[in-house]
Amino acid sequence: MAKKCGIQTPDGYFDSLQSRLVSIAETAPSVRKVGFARKVAPYFAYAASLVAAVLLGSFILRKTAVPEEEYSAWEENLVAEVLMSADPYALIFDSETVNP
After folding, report:
1. How far is residue 54 from each of residues 40, 46, 48, 80, 98, measured CA to CA in Å?
2. Is the pLDDT confidence value at 49 over 70?
């Protein structure tokens, strides 16, 4: 038994379909030319968003950056001494694994 889809077309629908499509195509309005501004508008929007992102990023970095004057020479020397006196293997490995 064949299944029916439930959708029916009117009698003679496909007989005159091609002539109706041709008449619709002939009466359709012609395609308008797209202006230069409409063609380049997405590229300008992309460029503007890139510039905005760079400016916003640089603004945030400038506001959150710590000025160099806040670091004293004493702090730099302290960090250098700690790094030089530290065992490099102790920074990576557990002391039990280095010296069994």
Report:
1. 21, 12, 10, 35, 47
2. yes
